[in-house]
């Protein structure tokens, strides 16, 4: 086979990134946008020794799980890698991916793994409470909002992402009208000129409160009173609670600037996960799918098996979502997180909820935990970890093994590092108990998993 040659291939599998995988004469092809079970016509794009990448030209025989993507720009955008698959197929893909990693990387036998069926969403659309739209111009010079196409920074117009809330479109419309009225230009990366870079929109799903923050390449927003009037007036947006702008004059891919100028409202919106209240400002971290977050952290609470007497550590605690969930049922919760602002939020969130048995440390889990254990002889009945994709540091795992809590609850956004770390803990005297995946990001290849480990009696 040569580059640009076209061929027919049956898609037998899908890789981690959601690309279809098929074989022709023993040679492996990755075909983006092809679905497991499809027979497709593909074109060879790039070839390595034992595998190659091909472009999907036409689906000749569609897989039983193939659907027409609901979003017209699904293929261009690439934000949702699995939109051509029905939801049932997506959930199966995610369960299989986690299971494969536990077996292949974790070296667990199938009968050691007790994964319950994945928690899917009833409505796998419009689940994101946060959106950031870049602004630019189309080829006719009209102001548009959308997403960056592929690896370029050309903006493709798309104002109604189906993962986002319906209000996004209304808000973008108002911002565009405002810009036209005030003769405000969108930002242009190449010349570093123009004002409006991004618009950040957040919504509290339980409170219906809405936040809008314009990210601008300047320190003044001309006509800011007019913007407030348009967003909050009779033709404005229901639930508008907080309006601000963020100053970002750097030549950078980072979206938000560090400085926030408040224009309307208290500077934050309020939302709840379970019965815990959160104040969310433009720069705060907050889980993007609050419905599934509540289910995932509810499972963490269940697996933690608290009776009210336990000392619990929540490592990689972020803004303390899990900590505050657990604090209601534990004697004491200690949270550890590397980002100081997140800990500030965690402390404030504890305070506004009247939670007094949670204490937070700023620092690396692999430094704070050993230090507290060795110097202060702290104890743990339960340790919860929710690390970033790279998983837990080995020093952190070693300290957990030394502390020998009754239970470890591992929440993970990357099943490869989950499998690696579970193997380490299993070799150190823990037994894998129940586990479950939770679909926090329908349409995409990402999945969260949660696994309970128990101290072995030996
Ligand atoms: N459960 C949290 C989210 C966890 S995401 C919540 O709901 O808010 C993983 C977190 O780990 C991030 O907040 C990240 O800043 C933090 N982190 C990354 N490396 C770390 C380390 N070495 N020690 C402690 N925290 C770390």
From TrEMBL:
<feature type="binding site">
    <location>
        <position position="337"/>
    </location>
    <ligand>
        <name>S-adenosyl-L-methionine</name>
    </ligand>
</feature>
<feature type="binding site">
    <location>
        <position position="287"/>
    </location>
    <ligand>
        <name>S-adenosyl-L-methionine</name>
    </ligand>
</feature>
<dbReference type="InterPro" id="IPR029063">
    <property type="entry name" value="SAM-dependent_MTases_sf"/>
</dbReference>
<dbReference type="InterPro" id="IPR010280">
    <property type="entry name" value="U5_MeTrfase_fam"/>
</dbReference>
<protein>
    <submittedName>
        <fullName>23S rRNA (Uracil-C(5))-methyltransferase RlmCD</fullName>
        <ecNumber>2.1.1.189</ecNumber>
    </submittedName>
</protein>
<dbReference type="Pfam" id="PF01938">
    <property type="entry name" value="TRAM"/>
</dbReference>
<dbReference type="Pfam" id="PF05958">
    <property type="entry name" value="tRNA_U5-meth_tr"/>
</dbReference>
<feature type="domain" description="TRAM">
    <location>
        <begin position="1"/>
        <end position="58"/>
    </location>
</feature>
<dbReference type="GO" id="GO:0070475">
    <property type="term" value="P:rRNA base methylation"/>
</dbReference>
<feature type="binding site">
    <location>
        <position position="386"/>
    </location>
    <ligand>
        <name>S-adenosyl-L-methionine</name>
    </ligand>
</feature>
<comment type="similarity">
    <text>Belongs to the class I-like SAM-binding methyltransferase superfamily. RNA M5U methyltransferase family.</text>
</comment>
<keyword id="KW-0489">Methyltransferase</keyword>
<keyword id="KW-0808">Transferase</keyword>
<feature type="binding site">
    <location>
        <position position="316"/>
    </location>
    <ligand>
        <name>S-adenosyl-L-methionine</name>
    </ligand>
</feature>
<dbReference type="GO" id="GO:0070041">
    <property type="term" value="F:rRNA (uridine-C5-)-methyltransferase activity"/>
</dbReference>
<keyword id="KW-0949">S-adenosyl-L-methionine</keyword>
<dbReference type="InterPro" id="IPR002792">
    <property type="entry name" value="TRAM_dom"/>
</dbReference>
<dbReference type="InterPro" id="IPR030390">
    <property type="entry name" value="MeTrfase_TrmA_AS"/>
</dbReference>
<feature type="active site" description="Nucleophile">
    <location>
        <position position="413"/>
    </location>
</feature>
<dbReference type="InterPro" id="IPR012340">
    <property type="entry name" value="NA-bd_OB-fold"/>
</dbReference>
<feature type="active site">
    <location>
        <position position="413"/>
    </location>
</feature>
